[in-house]
Amino acid sequence: MLYFLGIGGIGMSALARYFKAKGSEVAGYDRTATPLTRRLEAEGISIHYVDDPAMIPQDIEFVVLTPAIPADSKELNCLRERGVRIVKRAEVLGMISRQHTSVAVAGSHGKTTTTALVSHILMTARRRFSAFIGGIARNIDSNVVIGDERDEFVVMEADEFDRSFLQLSPDVSIVTSIDADHLDIYGDYQHVVEGFNQFVEKTSDRGLVVYHAGLPVQTSKPHITYGLNDADVVAANIRIVDGMTEFDAVLSDDEVVPIRMALYGDHNVQNALAAIIACKSLGISVKDIQEALLTFKGVQRRFDIRVNHGKHVYIDDYAHHPEEMRATLLTARKAFSGKELTVVFQPHLFTRTRDFMDEFAQVLSLADRVILLDIYPAREKPIAGVTSAEMLKRITAADKMLCLKTELVNVIKNIDPELLITMGAGDINDFVPQIEQLFDE
């Protein structure tokens, strides 16, 4: 049996599903039940929600551990005392990646959409592959593509948290962005940059590094840059036509590929460029790439348009770093110009809120109305003076307020916003069905 500590995480659940489909017996622990854990249980995976060593199965082959599990976990310490083999999620991904030609997508933001794009292109081209995606890809309603021993490729999201991506040995590596984040791990931005450069140097000597132009990437490996200008591959003539984004991908050999897709925003145009470069390097035809981008439905919680009818537009987004949030807000302004913008934001982690308090306030001030929830602590303890109330003081939007989660739905109902965005990496997405119902009524 394989036992997953933190099985409800998006990356952990993908691995659990993968091994279950391969015939392994799988069980796990997580702190709370979610729609994702309930799906795992429906697929035959046993899960419990109490940190209780008595509930650990006895016949464990090895334990897969997420970095989100705290060091004082009773189950983790019990398993260590029992001498059970414990491996990090990234180590397991590394083992899988070395069995096939692998594509690893890293970045402070943009990596989930880009991973899903690469996967959808390979699927459209009818190639054999497995994929591990850090979100629910709408085309497959899953975070994992499960292939077989005949797989040509494996595609995976490469997580920089805890330096996990250094466990991978990709043939094609993609870096979408490098921002100051996870400073509780890295200390400062320069060490973040060093981490990403260590990641790209793990790319095969015969492989390819694909990265956004202007990033502080230094690599001795073959590489191609992309961007809106001053790059090897650029996007030109970006426009929105009949609710779709159209642009010309100008490749490094000056080939011009017309693209039409249902994703909005310059950031998603650039994510598409990264996926195009990677898939062309794997031998995928331009025709398959064009068809895939035309039919790509996006990823849940990535500029996820949940309601778009009449007077209401509602978008849910995972953004939890100032630069991600800026891209989301500016894209919404452009795609739905003229509508009053209301943002509900749930800060994620006390350390991140402390490190980017002013940046969060500046970005949120782009909205017409800001509703702040309490900080979602995840794995952390409170830090004195780091609160949503302190952030609210620094926001310059004319209409701003604090809100308890228990009051959120009623507050939104009373406001009746034209354009609403909910943002955050905590449990704010639990409110999505209720908010959708408000607008449907």
Figure out the total of helices. Answer: 15
How are strands sequenced across the largest beta sheet?
A: 8-7-9-6-10-11-12-13-14-15
Total E-strand runs: 21
* CATH level 1 class label of the largest domain: Alpha Beta
CATH architectural name of the largest domain: 3-Layer(aba) Sandwich
How many domains is the backbone divided into? 3
Rounded average pLDDT:
94
CATH topology of the largest domain: UDP-N-acetylmuramoyl-L-alanine:D-glutamate ligase
User: Which class do the helix and strand fractions yield?
Assistant: alpha/beta
Q: Explain this structure to me?
A:
The protein is α/β, with parallel strands linked by helices and 441 residues long. It folds into three domains: 83 residues, 3-Layer(aba) Sandwich (Rossmann fold); 204 residues, 3-Layer(aba) Sandwich (UDP-N-acetylmuramoyl-L-alanine:D-glutamate ligase); 137 residues, Protein-Tyrosine Phosphatase, Chain A. Helix content is 33%, strand content 24%. It is built from 15 helices and 21 strands. Strands 8-7-9-6-10-11-12-13-14-15 form a ten-stranded mixed β-sheet, sandwiched between helices. It has a six-stranded mixed β-sheet with strand order 16-17-21-18-19-20, with helices on both faces. The chain has a five-stranded parallel β-sheet with strand order 3-2-1-4-5, sandwiched between helices. Strand 1, helix 1 and strand 2 form a beta-alpha-beta unit. Helix 5 crosses helix 8, helix 5 packs across helix 9 and helix 12 packs across helix 13.
